[in-house]
What does this fold into?
Amino acid sequence: MSTTASAMTTSQRRLPGRSPSKTVLFVLASLISLPLLVVVFSIFNPAPEIWRHLLDTVLSEYISNSIKLMLGVGLLSLILGIVPAWLTTMFRFPLSKQLEWALLLPLAMPAYIIAYTYTGVLDASGPIQTLIRDLTGWGFRDYWFPEIRSMGGAITMLAFVLYPYIYLITRAAFINQSVCSLEAARTLGCGPWKVFFRIALPLARPGIIVGLSLVLMETLADYGTVQYFGISAFTTGIFRTWFGLGNSAAAAQLSALLMIFVAVLVYVEYWSRQKQRYHHISTRFSSLVQKPLHGYQAVIATIVCSLPVIAGFIIPVCFQMYWALLTYVDVIDSAFLTQIWHSVLLAALAAVIATALALFMAYGKRHTASTFTRLAVNISGMGYAIPGTVIAVGVMLPLAWVDKMVDSYFRSHFDVSTGLILSGTLFALLFAYTVRFLAVSLKTVDAGLTKIKPSMEEAGRSLGLSEFRLLRKVHIPMMRGSLLAAFLLVFVDVLKELPATLILRPFNFNTLAIRAYELANEERLADAACPSLAIVLVGIIPVIYLSQSISKSRPGHEFNA
Amino acid sequence: MKLMKSKTPELLFSSLMIILVSITFSVTADESDKVINIYSERKEELIKPLLDRFSETTGIKVNMITAKGDALIKRLEIEGKNSPADILLTTDVARLYRAKSLELLQPIESDVIKAIVPANFRDTESTWFGLSLRARVIVYARDRVDPEDLSSYEALADPEWKGRVCVRSSSNAYNQSLVSSMIVHNGLEVTEDWAKGLVDNFARRPKGGDRDQIKAVAVGECDVALVNTYYLGGMLHSDIKAEKAAAEKVGLFWPNQSGRGAHFNVSGIGVTRSAVHVDAATRLIKFLLNDESQAWYAEANYEYPVKSGIPASATLQAWGDYKADPIKLDQLGQHNAEAVRLMDRAGWK
It folds into this structure.
C-alpha cells in the first residue's frame, strides 16, 4: 500500500478551443470583475490635491498599520489554525472528537461583534477591571492591564475569528495526506516533529497558503474592528477620505491601490508554487490510526486545542447570552423572525450562486489556455480584499448604467419609464456578494480540483464523455467535500456580511447583521446581543455540518466504515 | 465510487432561483401618493416609531432603508433621476450640505415649516431642514474637576489639561462639525494651533464612541471629554447598571456660554430631486415637526427639539439652560473637508 504524494511538474493539459462554454466563462468572469475594474478605473479621475495631503499626513500610517495588522493576524492565525489541525488529525486525547468540530465555531462569529464584546468585558470600565479596582482599592492609573483597543487587540480579535479558515483547509490537507506518506517517513526514522516539519507541513503548504490568503484578504477588508479600535488602517483611510474629505474619487483610488497590492501578493504566491503540483499517485489509502496521547501530553493537547474555541467562541457567546437575557423581551418580535429568514435566504442564494460559479470557473480555467480568461478569473477572485461598501459602489454603477439604457430605450420607443430594474433589488445584492465572496468558493473549489489527476479526466474523455458529463460524472462526485465547504463558507460569510447589505438592500429588507450592527454601533451592546447570537446560532449549523463532512472525507473512510 | 444523486441539488437550485426572481420583482415602485420612500442615515430604532405613527395617522405607507449617510448619498447620485427615494434623512448637517451640493435635493417652500425651524437650522434655499438638535458638550469627572475651571472648547487646549482630555476619532462627524464651527469663528490658523494643543492634552489615543469617552472619564482614565448629550442621556437610562453608574459619575458642562454658545449640529431631512411623492414628503416633514414628534426626540433619544416651546423632558431639564452657537449650519458643511485636513495635520487620529 503505497501513496506517494509528490510535487510533480505538470504541463497542464489544455483542450483545443472548441467548447462554447469558454466564451461563457470569459463573459461571466468579466462581469464579476467589472465592479472591481470600475474601482480601478477611478485612477483616471485624478485628485492631486487630496493625494498630496494624504501623502503629507496620514498615508504612510495607513499603509504601515495595515501591514502590521496583516503580519500579526497572519502569524497568529497560522499558529491557532495549524497546531490544532495537526493534533486533532494525528492524535486522540480527551475531547479531541468534540474539538474537531468545535474549532470551526468561531467562523460563525462576526469580527465586529467579537471586538465589541471583548471591549465590553476587558475595557477599563468593564466588569473585570472594575472588579480589580473594587477588590484592591486601586485607581485606574495604579495598575497595568492589557489595552484591548490597540493594534495587538485588533490582531487578536481578527485572528480569533479568522484562524478557522486555516484550520479547516489545513486539516483537510492533513487528512488527505493519509497515513501512508507519514508512516513511510516514520519507518525511515523521522521523529514526530520531523514528520510534521519535513513531510506534513510542506505537503499541506498549498492548503495552508489558500487559508492564509483568505485570512489576509479578510483582514485587509475589515473596517468595523479597526474603526472601533481607533486604528488608522487602509480601510479607515478609504472611508475617511470619502466621508470626511468628501472625495469619493480619491477614496476609490485608495481602494484601487489596495487591489494592486493584493494582486501583487496573489501573483507572488502563484509564482512561488508555479512549478509544484500536488497529486496523490495512489488512490488506495489506509485509514488513519490516531495515536492516543496519555498523561501530561494529553492534557496539553486538550488545552492547546481548546484555547482557540474558548477565546473565539465560548467567552464571547457567554457574555452575549448574559446580555441577551437582559434584553430579549424588547428585541425579539415578529420582525426579528423576518430578519432571520432574510439572512438565511440571502446566505443560501449567494452560496449556491458562488459555488456553482466557482465550479464552472475553476474547471474552465483549468482547461482554457486563453490568457484573458485566466486573467479575468483571477481578478474576479480578488473582491475578498475590498471593503463591502466599495464593492457596493462598483456594483451600483454598472447596474445603474444598464437601468438607464433600458429606461431611455423604453421611453423613446414606448413612452414608458421602466425606472430601476436592477438597482435596489436582491439581484444587485447577490451580485455584490458574488463579487465579494467568489474568492472563498473559487479557492476552495480550486484546491479540490487539483486533487483530480489529469489522467482521470483523460480516461473519462477517452470513454467518450462530453465536457459537461465529465464534470458531472467525475469531478462533482470527487469534489463533493470541496463543493460543500465552498457552499458553507460563503453561507456563513454572507450571514455575517454587513456593509454591502446595508447600502444595496431593497426597501424594508433587514437582516440579523444589520440589526446587530445598528444597535452595537449606537454602543448599545446589550441590545445587540440577541441578533448577534442569532447570527452565531444560524451560522453554527452549517459549520458543524461542514466539519462532519470533512471527517467523512478522510481517504479510506468508505472502505473501512 | 458512488455517483452523487444529481436530482436534489438541481431541484434545490431551481427552487431557490424561483424564490429569487419572485422576490426581485415583487419590489416594484408604487406610483400612488399613498407611499413614501426614505433613505435614512438615522438608525431604524431611532426613527421607526415616529414613521409608524405617521403611517397610522395619514395612511401613507413608509418604505425605508438605513445605511451610512455618504453611502446613501452615493446611491442617490448613481441612481439619478430614477431613484425611488423621496426623502433623505441624515444625522448631521455636513451630509445634507453634501447632498445639496451634488444637486440631489429639491427646495420645499412652506411657510409653516419655515416658521417652525429657526433660520440657522435650515438651508437658505429650503432644500433641507433640521429636525432635532444635537449638542456637543464637555463632560467632567465630578470628583476630580471643579466646573469653575471649565470655560470653553478653546480652553481645553490649555496646558493645565495636559493628559486629561478624552475625545473620539476625528473621523467622527460631530468632531468634524465642531472644528468646522471653530474655523468659521476663529480662523484656520488659530484652530489648527488649538487642535495641536488639544492633541497634546489627550489622555489616550482616540478610540471608541462617545459613550466610551464618558466611561473613560468615570473610571479616571481622563478628567474631561467632548461628547454629544444624548449619549449621556442613553447611559443614564441604561439597563446595564455599570453604564448608569458611570454616567452618574460625570457632570455636564455647557461650554462657551459667555461667548458664542455651545456647538449644535442637527439631524435633518431633505426631499430628493427624484422624488415623485413630493406631497407626501412635505406632509412627513410637517409631521416630524409637530409638537408630539418633537417631544418624542427628547423622550426617546434625549435630543433637543428644533421647535421652540416644546416642554423639555426631565433628563434635558436636569442639564439646565444653555446658549447655542447661532452659526448658520451650512457653513459647517462648507468647511468640513478643511476641518478633516486640519485634524490630519494636527495628528488627531
